[in-house]
Fold this protein.
Amino acid sequence: MTGDYGDNRPAAAAHYPIALPGRPRFGQSLAPFVRLLPVAAVLALAPLAMRSDGGRRALLASSAFVALFSMRATGAFPLCALAYLAFLGGIRRYLIPVLGWSGNDLLLLVCPAVAGLIFGGKAFARQLPRDTRLARLLPWLLLIMALQIFNPMQGGLEVGAAGALFYIVPLLWYYVGRDLGTAEFLPKLLRLTVGIAILAALYGLYQNFFGFAPCEETWIQLAGPLYGALNVGDTKRVFSFFTSAAEYNAFLSLGIVLLWAYWLRTRSFAALLPIPLLAAAILYSGIRGPIVFTLFTCALLVAVQGRRAASWLPRCCLALAVGAVGLIWSLQQVEKVNGGGQAQELVAHQTQGLLNPFDSEKSTVGIHTDLIGIGFMEGFTNPLGRGLGATTLAASKYGEGSVSTEVDLSNMFLSLGLAGGLLYAALCGLILTNAFRYWHRARSVVALSLLGVLAASLGQWLNGGHYAACLLIWFCIGALDRAQAEEAQ
């Protein structure tokens, strides 16, 4: 018999310091009634909540919380949580005509609350894993982040508290992955990711060519000023049903990489059919980074098919060269087509930047490189850090402005200082090493997919604004660590 979190301890050993939904405290005979208490409470409060927009929003959030928390010990939880976070942006926008818009939406706290309670329960019950190097190091990073919530350099305490949602919550999905990320379950999660990416591409292309819905136009006017990256000149980037254009692109990239990994191991040509759709959606998105990282990751996955690790680097260089030539030729052909409209402006933005990467008037490579360098140097010039929320949107919303470098590693040096930055760098190196070793041993579709997810999202593992993508990344990291722990037994 296993506990509620998929470990080998008796269920009675895993307990919370306070009674929570779904935890029987009054014997087996009353357990079903105890489980129904949260549902009964929501139903009882519904008449009162329905009297105001805020109450209706709270009712929706509490219902979603009860639903997700009740399935926390099953594989349905990460599947439903991933779908919820992926569609959350669209849900909130389409609720604007009904409930208005709120920047402090309780719907944003549903998954953090569930993940936090799972982590808190394991911590109080002393069930946090310590059987791998990653499992032993991660709590130290969490501790440094918790201390940085109170750093006065970032502004008020609300900046640090909001920063915890961006940086601490993603790490908690590691523990969910450790418990539920079995080799049998992971294909379901990865297939769901591909399915979401395909749906996102279809809706994103619809926005490209037919425009935004009225509620989306309203959202752009209300929340757009906080998201400067939404603008490309006078044109708006599309965001599909995600919370941001950046996360939309991240999911498109992950979809391509997962399909490519599946094709490499199975040679099923059906896996290649959706790739042109996803590639077109990325091209029309107006964001260049995912194109480069997708190309690099696909070349990497081809390279590691070699049996000897020593052959991976030359194979990668060759695959990357072939892919780069193909990309340049394709962009040159696209550049000759002038379809007009805002979609064409986004395509022109892509082609000009990618074909002229060292032209400062057409490419932002130099700007991004400078920002990354500034972040690393900040770790040495200000070794105590600027605070957990300093590099997040929370600093723009509640403080004097964000100082994000747009890459998680340099952001950690800036936010957490030298010790936190070095620790996170060590964790990244350890995780990537484990991913390569696991692939080299297992050589399975799942192992190749895990490596692809980590490589395609490199630099964005702790981009807390990528709600669904961060869940997937850290769940996969937890699953990867679980596999390592099982092999060591």
Q: What stands out?
A: Residues 1-31 have pLDDT under 50 and may be disordered. Residues 142 and 461 are 15 Å apart (CA to CA). The chain has two domains: 1-127, 133-488.
